[in-house]
Design goal:
Layout lengths: L1 E2 L7 H10 L4 E3 L1 E2 L4 H7 L6 H16 L4 E3 L5 H8 L7 E6 L10 E6 L2
Parallel strand pairs: 1-3, 2-4
Antiparallel strand pairs: 5-6
Helix pairs in contact: 3-4
């Protein structure tokens, strides 16, 4: 689903429909201001405050969600997840390092727990 001003109010219903349909993940796409959008749909692009409100709603929905919520190309979403200390229930956060002895300066890796 593309997140734009016209679809903001549909997000909760679309999310519930996706879960009811038995999906494993839900993807929401932020409307990016590429040339065509700037020319024809600029009024549909969310303001920063509108985007933050949507990302906060998605983050809270992720807290107890049976599916993974992904928002590709929107760096605000993972930052809000981190800020609110929300981790998808079906992912396990592990740290990988060559020595496997330290969590410092290593890359976090998400593994699906299916």
């Amino acid at each position: 689903m593309v997140i734009r001003k016209q679809t903001i109010n549909e997000i909760p219903d679309m999310f519930r429909l996706a879960i009811k349909s038995g999906v494993n993940a839900v993807e929401f796409f932020d409307l990016v201001q590429v040339s065509r959008v700037k020319e024809k749909y600029l009024e549909e692009v969310l303001s920063k405050s509108e985007r933050r409100k949507v990302m906060e709603w998605l983050a809270e929905a992720q807290r107890n969600s049976p599916v993974v919520i992904r928002v590709p190309a929107c760096p605000m979403y993972p930052l809000i997840l981190k800020e609110k200390k929300i981790q998808p229930n079906i992912f396990q956060l592990v740290y990988w390092h060559e020595s496997h002895t330290s969590k410092e300066d290593v890359l976090p890796v998400c593994l699906m727990d299916i």
